[in-house]
Every structure is written in structure tokens, then in C-alpha cells.
Specification:
Alpha-Beta Plaits, 14 helices, elongated, Beta-Lactamase, alpha+beta, single chain, about 500 residues, 3 domains
Length: about 500
């Protein structure tokens, strides 16, 4: 008996030395699982954590055939686990045959090789941390000595795990404070909308387990959600805007209720039916947190973090995201307002087209990018035919309406990435990136035909005023020196269109 006790003490000392030599909680529990089975020469050992708040078992580490996969094992919702039974009992439990026990579900018992089990609670200051489950693959009767030695080892393990949990918790709190500080700095220092969104994402990613993250902004007038930032599986993806009237999903529910939503497992059919889950594609997320972005009484949108692991988030995570969202809403609104001011400073107040100065700043940049990468670039130069007649015959108010109608029509004929600028008076320039000469001519004709079909409302003519434009087209060619030369070529082609009868498209020679 003395020799047995000495051997046990040596094993126990070796176990604790190995545990205390680890760098983090994950490495520690794996080391403990590997060595705990040796205490009584068992076939396997499983260490779990117990989340008392949510009543769920969290697999942490295993010794045996499931060593590399056990952490990813997920009990079903409301499924009976051995750890839950141990937590309810408050003391160690013995299972002679897992296939015939009420302490563990038949599904779980069938998934693992162990038949006879001993489950020992890991406790610290009366709090249940989790359990150590030692198993034999064949039926086994646990002796008093095996139980005593295992429980003694479990007490030492509980102390080591509790200490590491405190260190990890302190580390996480420090990281959380740092992230909140970074977001606070972004509120005061950064006014660039995209950079603010990226800062928010990077700080969330640094402190919260996530596989999917999105920031959705809400247009109350259109009842539409758009997603300026959506990350899934480590990649930024495009996620189409949608109407929450037609497809509310979880984000729509959050906006309507103005309250946070936390779902342990969004894959449950009842959850999907209740919220009308909208998928982004890829591997579906399971755990979901979504919180409203509130600026005063105004709902700006929704911030969401998601994990492919169910039950990944706690009430603390919800509170943390709510805190980040409160700061983020201020940063987003400040950046948005700054963006609007910047846009107004480079936008023609009457037509909404960019001003000449912005054209002459952006145009050379587009030219340089196209020539550097060997890509196509074209320009359209538009002039409203007989515009002075509108002003002299019907007044400047009517002339202004003609300008606005032409710009609105022309914008509808080109892409969002195309740069539409007012050159001066009734002249406009459209910069067409990635557009070769033949396609540019087609776009020019589409704009010309669209304007020709316009009828501008007039108190004099019941059918409205007819408007036409002359269009010049130019494209980068070998030897084109700079943007100004490209612009001059388009202008010359537009003048030729005037000379050849107006209401036509001419391509630069």
C-alpha cells in the first residue's frame, strides 16, 4: 500500500509540474487530460467546462482516440451530458455501463468508446468549473483506491485550472479595455468612413471569437439594410442590400425591437422559422449576437458577431458587443457626417454632379492607374444642344430644370463607378474606367438616346420640352500623354458632333 501511495504521489507531482509549465488554458487542460488517465491506468480521459448560466457542457480536452477532435464535439440542445449530471449531483458519479445509464444520452454514449465512467467535478470556492471524466473501454468496477486517487488528483487539477482561468480572464479584460480604447480613439481621430468600420471590425476580432462579422446600416425611408462591411470565413464579401419589409431576418427583428438578440444555435429549425434567417453563403454560423447601433433615438443599423461553434457566447459577450456598438454608433455617425460634408464640397449644388475641381483631381489619377496597369479608360464629353435658348425663351428656372433632368437621365445610363462631373455651364464629362473605345461609343449613344427621350415639364408646352445633347468620345491610345490630352480629344469630338448636326455621337480620331 505504501509503495502504491508513493507511486501515486509521484504521478501527481509530475502531473502538476507539467500543468504549471504550460502557456495557456488550452495547453494546460490537454496536458492534464493526457496525464489524468495514467493516475489509474484508464483508457481515456475527457475534461469539460460547465457553463452554469446557460446550463451547457463545453468539451475542452481528451486523451485517447478523440484527442484531436474532442474540442469540436457539440452536444445537442437540451441533451443530457455526464457533466450536467455531475453538476446537478455536486459530487463524483460512477457509471458502470454508459449504454445503460440515465446520466448520459444514448447518442453521446454511442459516439464514444468508453463503457465504464467515473466523473469527478472540478470545483473552486464552491463553484463548478467542469468535470474530469475517466473511462474504460470495457466494463470496469472502480475500486475505492482508484476513486480516492482520482478525486485527490482532481482537487489539484481544479486549483491549477482555476488559477489559469483567472489569468485568462484578466488577460481578456485587458484586451477588451484596449479594444474599447482603440474604438474611442477612432471616434475622436478618424473621420474616414471605411477606416472607422475596419477599426471596429479589427478590435472586435481581437477580443471575441468570430467567424462572421457584419455592420449593417439602415435606411429608414426605404426600409432597407445595406452592408458596407461583411466578413465571413476570414474574407470580406459583398452582401446585397435588402428590404427588411420583405426579408427582415435577425437584423430586421433587432431594428424593429431596438434590442439585442443572442441565439446560442441559429441552425435550430424553430429559430430559422421564427426569424427568417438570411444566409450569406459559405459555412453557416451557429452562435449569433446582434445589437442595434443607436445614435440617440435613431437606429443606425446592426452590428453582429457570429461563430460556427454553437453556444460560443455568454451574457458577458452580449454586454461587450453592446458597449462596442454604443461607441461605434458615434464613430459611424461622425464619419458619415464628415463624408457628407466632403461630398458636398466636391458636388455641384444644382445637378448633383461632381464639380470641375474634383474632375481635374480624380481624372489624372484614373489616367495614371489605367496606364500603369495597361487598362482601358474612356471619356464622354456632353453638351446640351441649344441650351441658351431654354434660358432666353423660358427663363433660368426652366434652364435649371433642364440641367437637372439631363444629369439625372445620364447618370441612370452609366455605372456607379463612373465619374460624372460638370465641366462648366451646360457641359459635362463622364470618366469611364475599364471601358474600351467600342463600349464607350455604345455608352455615349445610350446616354444620347436617353436624353432625347426626355420631356422636361413646362408650363408653356403640355407635352414638355424636348432636349438633345451632342456627345464626344475619346479613349486612351498609344501616345496619349495625359488626362488633359484625353479630355481635349473628347471635347474636340463633341464640337464635331455639333458641326455635323447636333444630337449625335462622334468618336475622337
Amino acid at each position: 500500500m505504501l509503495a502504491d501511495d508513493i507511486s501515486h504521489i509521484r504521478l501527481l507531482n509530475a502531473l502538476m509540474e507539467a500543468a504549471l509549465d504550460t502557456r495557456d488554458l488550452e495547453e494546460m487542460v490537454q496536458t492534464l487530460a493526457d496525464r489524468m488517465a495514467n493516475i489509474i491506468e484508464a483508457d481515456g480521459c475527457y475534461i469539460t467546462f460547465w457553463d452554469a448560466e446557460r446550463g451547457i457542457t463545453i468539451p475542452a480536452a481528451a486523451y485517447g482516440p478523440y484527442r484531436s477532435t474532442y474540442r469540436g464535439y457539440v452536444p445537442l440542445a437540451h441533451e443530457q451530458t455526464f457533466t450536467a449530471a455531475i453538476a446537478a449531483a455536486g459530487h463524483s458519479l460512477i457509471v458502470e455501463d454508459a449504454h445503460r445509464s440515465n446520466f448520459v444520452s444514448k447518442r453521446i454514449a454511442a459516439n464514444f468508446p468508453a463503457r465504464s465512467l467515473m466523473g469527478i467535478p472540478m470545483k473552486s470556492d464552491g463553484r463548478m468549473l467542469g468535470s474530469i471524466i475517466i473511462g474504460y473501454n470495457s466494463l470496469h468496477v472502480f475500486t475505492e483506491s482508484e476513486i480516492a486517487h482520482s478525486e485527490q488528483a482532481a482537487r489539484h487539477v481544479s486549483f491549477a485550472v482555476a488559477k489559469m482561468l483567472l489569468l485568462e480572464d484578466e488577460k481578456h479584460r485587458s484586451e477588451e479595455l484596449f479594444a474599447l480604447n482603440r474604438i474611442g480613439m477612432a471616434i475622436n481621430a478618424d473621420r474616414d468612413f471605411d477606416r472607422v468600420l475596419e477599426t471596429i471590425f479589427e478590435q472586435c476580432k481581437s477580443i471575441i471569437e468570430l467567424d462572421t462579422f457584419y455592420l449593417a446600416l439602415f435606411d429608414a425611408e426605404k426600409e432597407e439594410l445595406r452592408f458596407p462591411l461583411f466578413y465571413d470565413g476570414g474574407e470580406r464579401i459583398h452582401f446585397a442590400a435588402r428590404s427588411i419589409a420583405k426579408h427582415p431576418g435577425m437584423s430586421g427583428h433587432i431594428i424593429r425591437s431596438r434590442a439585442s438578440l443572442s441565439i446560442p444555435d441559429a441552425s435550430i429549425p424553430e429559430i430559422q422559422k421564427t426569424y427568417g434567417v438570411v444566409r450569406a453563403g459559405g459555412v453557416p454560423a451557429r452562435a449569433y449576437i446582434g445589437v442595434p447601433l443607436m445614435y440617440g433615438d435613431k437606429v443606425l443599423g446592426v452590428m453582429s458577431v457570429q461563430s460556427r461553434r454553437p453556444n460560443a457566447y455568454t451574457a458577458h459577450h452580449v454586454q461587450l458587443i453592446e458597449t462596442i456598438a454604443a461607441q461605434s454608433a458615434i464613430a459611424i455617425e461622425n464619419a458619415r457626417l464628415n463624408g457628407e460634408l466632403q461630398h458636398l464640397s466636391i458636388t455641384d449644388g444644382l445637378t448633383g454632379a461632381f464639380i470641375f475641381r474634383h474632375l481635374m483631381e480624380r481624372g489624372p489619377l484614373e489616367f495614371a492607374k489605367a496606364t500603369r496597369h495597361g487598362r482601358a479608360l474612356s471619356l464622354l464629353f456632353l453638351d446640351i444642344d441649344g441650351f441658351s435658348d431654354f434660358n432666353s425663351r423660358f427663363g433660368h428656372a426652366t434652364g435649371n430644370e433642364v440641367l437637372k433632368a439631363v444629369v439625372d437621365c445620364a447618370k441612370g445610363c452609366v455605372r456607379e463607378i463612373d465619374l460624372f462631373a460638370r465641366y462648366g455651364g451646360e457641359e459635362f464629362v463622364i470618366v469611364l474606367p475599364e471601358t474600351p473605345p467600342d463600349e464607350a461609343a455604345v455608352v455615349g449613344e445610350r446616354v444620347r438616346a436617353g436624353v432625347e427621350a426626355l420631356r422636361v415639364p413646362s408650363p408653356v408646352f403640355s407635352g414638355g420640352l424636348r432636349v438633345t445633347i451632342s456627345v464626344g468620345v475619346s479613349s486612351i491610345a498609344p501616345g496619349t500623354a495625359d488626362f488633359q490630352e484625353l479630355l481635349n480629344a473628347a471635347n474636340a469630338a463633341e464640337r464635331r458632333a455639333k458641326e455635323n448636326g447636333r444630337n449625335r455621337v462622334e468618336v475622337a480620331i
